[in-house]
Amino acid sequence: MEDEDKEEQEAELEALLAIFDDGELSVHNEGGRPRHSLRVLPEGDEDTAAAAAAADVLLLDWWYPVDYPSVSAPDYSLRLLSGRSEPRLTALRAELDELWVDADHQVVLYTWIEHLRSQLDDILPARQEAPTAAPPAAPEPAAIYEVVVLPEIVHGEPFTDRRSTFQAHAAVVSSEAEVFAVREALMQNGKIARATHNIAAWRLFDEHRDVVIHDNDDDGETAAGGRMAELLALTGASNVVVVVSRWYGGIHLGPDRFKHINNAARAILEHMGIIAGGKKGKKG
Predict the structure, then answer these.
(1) Which of 2, 49, 122, 225 could form a disulfide with 218 if both were Cys (CB 3.0 to 4.6 A apart)?
(2) Confidence class of residue 179 from pLDDT cuts 50, 70 and 90?
(3) Cβ atoms within 10 Å, residue 174
C-alpha cells in the first residue's frame, strides 16, 4: 500500500505542478521531508506577481505522510503571509478536514485549493475594496432572439484504461449561446448522454463586451472541469468549448483520471490546430 500511496502522491504533485507556476507553488526540502507551499490566488489571475503584491496572500503549506491518501490526510498549515490574525482561518481548517472525509481516501489537494480560492473574498477583504470597472452594458434585446447556428463538432479518438473509456469533443465558438448549443447537441447522442461524466470547459472572447468569458462544468467529476479550464488558460486556447466524456468501468483510477481527461482535451485541441502541436482534425 505504501508504494501505491507514493505513486498517487507523485501523480497528484505532478498534476499540481502542471497547473500552477513557480510563482505560486514551490517545494522546499526540510530535513528530508519536502514542504510544499502554495500561494492561493484568485482563479484566472494570470499575473502572479501583481496579484501577490496587491494585498495579503493566503498560504497553504503541506507535507505528505507516507500513508496518504490510503489512511491519513496531508499534514498542513494555513496562514496569511503578513502574519495577520484572521478568525475565518479556523473555520477554513475545519472545512478542509471535512473535505478530506468526503474524499474517502482519494487525493484531495486540488479540492482543497479550489475551496480556498472560493473563500478568498472573505479572507482578503482588501481585494473587495479595489476599484472595479463599471459593469458592461446589457445587450440589446434583439440579441435574445438571435438565431444560433450549431458550430461543427470535432470528435477525438476514444481510449480506455482499466475499463474506463474517455473521448473528447470540441468546437470553435464565438458566443456562450454557441457553447450551450454544442453541449445540447452532444446530449442528443445516446452514447454520449449515457456517459458517467461529460466534463466541459470553454473560453472565448466576447467582442461586444471586450471581455474573456470562461467557465466549466465538472458534471459530477469533482475538480475535473476546473483542471480543464486551467489547461485552456495555460495553453492560450480561445473561442473553443471542449467536452470530455468518461464512461466509468468500475475500477477507481485515482489521479490518473484527471491526467486522461486533460490529455484527451489537449489532444483534440492540438488535432484541431487550436494550440501548437497538431493539425486540423476530422469533423462530424
Answers:
(1) 225
(2) very high
(3) 14
Place of cell 499540481: 16
Give, in order, the Cα–Cα distances in Å from 255 to each of 5, 165, 224: 11, 15, 10
pLDDT of residue 277: 65
Q: How far is CA 265 from CA 146, 236, 248, 261, 283, in A?
A: 30, 13, 17, 6, 16
User: Please, how many CA atoms are within 13 Å of residue 4, restricted to the half-sphere of its CB?
Assistant: 10
pLDDT digits (tens, 9 = 90+) for 117-134: 888 877 775 444 444 556
Closest CA to 225 of 260, 182, 258: 258
What is the rounded CA–CA span in Å between residue 177 and residue 46?
A: 26
Q: Which of 14-28, 47-61, 226-240 has maximum average pLDDT?
A: 226-240
Q: What is the pTM of this model?
A: 0.50
Residue 8 CA neighbour count, 13 Å, CB half: 25
Instruction: Compute CA 282 distance to the chain's CA centroid, rounded to the nearest angstrom.
Output: 27
Asked whether residue 53 carries a pLDDT value surpassing 60, the answer given is no
